[in-house]
Structure formats: C-alpha cells, structure tokens
Amino acid sequence: MSKLILLFLALIPLLCSSFSPETPSDRRVLVLLDDFALKSSHSLFFNSLKSRGFDLHFHLADDPKIALQRYGQYLFDALILFSPTIERFGGSVDAAAILDFVDSGHDLVVAADSNASDLIREIATECGVDFDEDPAALVVDHSGYAVSATEGDHTLIASDDFIKSDVILGSKKIEAPVLFQGIGHSLNPTNSLVLKVLSASPSAFSANPKSKVTTPPSLTGSSISLVSVIQARNNARILISGSLSMFSNRFFRSGVQKAGSPIKHEKSGNEQFLNELSKWVFHERGHLKAVNVQHHKVGEANEPAIYRINDNLEYSVEVYEWSGSAWEPYVADDVQVQFYMMSPYVLKTLSTDGKGRYFTSFKVPDVYGVFQFKVEYEKLGYTSLSLAKQIPVRPFRHNEYERFIPAAYPYYGAAFSMMAGFFVFTAVHLYSK
Amino acid sequence: MARSSSKDAQDLFRALWSAYAATPTNLKIIDLYVLFAVFTALIQVVYMALVGSFPFNSFLSGVLSCVGTAVLAVCLRIQVNKENKEFKDLAPERAFADFVLCNLVLHLVIMNFLG
C-alpha cells in the first residue's frame, strides 16, 4: 500500500505539462477583468491566444477566490491584468504577490486606461514604468490623431512609431498605424531593461482634455511611451500598455487614417501589432538557450582539465531558439566568447554552421592563472545568455621550453669556436719550433 | 709642429713594428690566438648591444669563454717567454700543462653555463 502511494507520488511531476525550462512557452494564463463584458468586447485578442494553445482562466479582479499560488506552487504561468480600475484585488492577490510572480520568472501583461487606479499605477512603477501622475490626463495629439467622423478631442491617436526589432514585432512590417486611446507613461533613461515598443509622435502631450492646459505638461513628445515591454534579468517579460481599448475588437476591426496623411487603411495595425507582441511576451519568440559547451585542444577530442600557455584550443557551444513548439537552431553572427581572467584576454566572434552550433579556435595567451570561457550575450528582444566555464592555465614545464634559443646562436658559436681554437692552438704550439 | 708630431708618430710606429718583428715565432702565434679571442668577444658584445641581452647567461658564457681563453693564453705567453727573468726556472712543458688543464676547466664551466 505504501509502495503504491510512493509510486503515485513519483509520477506526479510527469503529470504536469506546464511551463518548464524544456518548454518555455506559457500555458495557463490567468486573466483578471473589471467586468465580464471584456470577454466579448475583446474576444478577437483572447481567441488568438486560445488558438495558439493558451489555457485562459477568466476571473473578476475582485473575485475573492483568485490565487496565484497554492502551497508554494504557482497555479498559472502568466498573468494578464485587464482591470485598470481595480482598487484592491480579491483573494490572495496583491501588488506584492504579483511582483513575486514576476520575480519567479513568469510573464505579465498590464493594461491601464484613462481611469487607472493607484494599484495598477503602483504595479507599473515597480516594473520600471511611470504613468503620468495626473489621474485625469490622457495622451492628446493634435497632429497625430486618428481621423474619425466626429471631431473628437484628439485623444484617439494613430501611432506608427514602432521599435525596430524583428524579434519583438515580427518580421512582417506593420503597414497601418495602431489606434490608441489612454494614458501615457515615461521610462527612466538609466533603466536598461525597459524598451519603448510604441512611442507617441513628437507632437503628443499628456494632459486633461477637458480642462485648459495652464502649466506645461510633464510628459511631451516622443518621450511618451504608449506601450512598453520589460525583460527582467530572470528573463520574465512584462508588457505595459496605457490603453485597454487598444486590445478591443472595435479597434482591431476599425479602419484608420492618421491626420495629415492621405492614406486610409482598411484595418488598423492593432491586431497584427498585439498578436506579434503577445507572441514575444509569452516566449514564443526570442527565447534562447545555450547548451553543450565543449572545449578541447586542437587535434584532441576529450576535454582536458588544464591548459598550457600557447596551446591551440577549440571552443563550441550550441544555441537554440524556442519557436513556440520546438527548439530551432539560432542563427546569428554576433555571439562572442571571452577568455576571461579579470578582463578578457581573448575575445572572439563565434562562427556558426547554421544548425545551432557556434565554434571558434584560438591560442591560449601567454599568461597563466585560472581563466573562464565566458559567453555574455544580450541582444535587444532576446533572452540574455550568460555562460561561464572555468579552466586553469599552467606555464611551461621545465622540459617544455625550446632546447636551443635562436637568439643565442652567436654565443653558442663563439664558445665552440673558442674550443676549436684552443685545440688548433695546442697542436700548433707543440709542433712548431 | 703638426708635421713633426705626425712624423714622430710614424717613427714611433715603425720602431714598435721593427721591435715586434724580433720576437720569437711561438710568441707571435700566442699573440695571434689572443687577438682571435678578443675579437670574438668584441663581436659578441656588439651583437648584444644590437639585439638585447635576452639569454643573458648565454651572453656571459660566450664572452667569458673568450676572455678566459685570452687570459690563459697571456699567462702561457708570460711563462714561456725566455726573456722573462721571473720564470727562468719554470719548464715550458709545465706552463703548457697548466694552460691545458685550466682551459679544460674553463670550457667545462662554459658548457654548463651556456644553457
């Protein structure tokens, strides 16, 4: 009986088919909404997620039964917060729990809107994104707004200022501008982890559209970010958008014409933009792993425990990218390896065979000590690779030096010529009169 | 005055040369040997000045072999010279035997220090 229980317990890990380092795509997603009308008004976005295999669990944000983790295990792999007005989450969810969720490597999508609560703003600030402090401010753009039948207050803007990254936004160019109506945020310029994916045009500013603007607005121009992403150092990805209506079916289906541009697009770029961005946020693109580090002396196959100075060695590593369903070979020409001891003595760019194997060969420098093979790869939009393998390097043994030093040949010659001269001289001295 | 001083130098040089011509042949052979050793030493010093003293032990060994050879040859010349009153009673064979033994020790040391 106890053996049966033991067997059952041992099988439990196999029964879980969720997020793991072997399959980094998220599977179970908790979606917290302000009201369930969002399920239908944003159904295009949710359906595209479901069609990619995600398991969405919809709950009201103040539902007392929601929980991110139970008994130390996380119940979900990713969290979508479409609840901009929520003052306090229900259940065991709060700002600290959400931040722990992200710290443990899970992804987060936060959408704020014109009536964003302090809680949502606080979560965004913890992630590195600062919304405009004025609670009634919206992003207004008098020359980049979306042309519509009614003359609005120009808070519905059409933006096409995308980040230039194929891995974040997909390789296909987004032709139509993206419709946006909501609040803007700014990023701290010293923060190296946040990226502006969709910026406002230089003529935009953040102010209350109903009241007269008396003081210069704090957020202006292209420094306003409409949609930002953060890739944390543990490779968790966070998407923060200032507009919830950006994700709605109405905006997905609507045509768009940017003010000042004669081109009228049939369909806005929202659907393509958000689908591609969600692929990136949920690790279907740009997630790398590096495996199988090998190094050996040229001509040998096994890995030595120690190298000697001036040895020729070969180093290879395999890098794969997750394509959403399988690991594909990653192809790039800027992966570098360092032979590092306090500073890199050798820095070489690895060449690839196209199948994910990166290799190079170089000569060990004329310095002995304990070195590391370091690969530190941080490319925009990709997970960071940080590999280090330690290897000692020894100096020559006493019998590994060259036997005769070419620079000293004249001295060798002189000594031997003296001996020969001595021999000849003795012969001459003895046998001459 | 210049012409007379250069004429004096020429006369001095000719007097030295004719006096030297009178030395016995075996002493002249020893002098030639000494010159060979000193010349080899000079070549090595010039080479070191050009290239640097990297295997310093080899340089010292090469120069010392030349200098030691020259010194021992000079000792032999002193002892073998018949006009030298100090060594009148020393047999030239004894001087030569000393010379050979000292050279053997010198070359042993040189070979060790040469690297």
From TrEMBL, chain B:
Keywords: Apoptosis, Endoplasmic reticulum, Membrane, Transmembrane, Transmembrane helix
Segments passing through the bilayer: 32-50, 56-76, 96-114
Pathway the protein takes part in: Protein modification; protein glycosylation
Cellular compartment(s): Endoplasmic reticulum membrane
GO BP: protein N-linked glycosylation
GO cellular component: oligosaccharyltransferase complex
Membrane topology: Multi-pass membrane protein
Subunit architecture: Component of the oligosaccharyltransferase (OST) complex.
Function: Subunit of the oligosaccharyl transferase (OST) complex that catalyzes the initial transfer of a defined glycan (Glc(3)Man(9)GlcNAc(2) in eukaryotes) from the lipid carrier dolichol-pyrophosphate to an asparagine residue within an Asn-X-Ser/Thr consensus motif in nascent polypeptide chains, the first step in protein N-glycosylation. N-glycosylation occurs cotranslationally and the complex associates with the Sec61 complex at the channel-forming translocon complex that mediates protein translocation across the endoplasmic reticulum (ER). All subunits are required for a maximal enzyme activity.
Family that this chain belongs to: Belongs to the DAD/OST2 family.
Record's protein name: Dolichyl-diphosphooligosaccharide--protein glycosyltransferase subunit DAD1
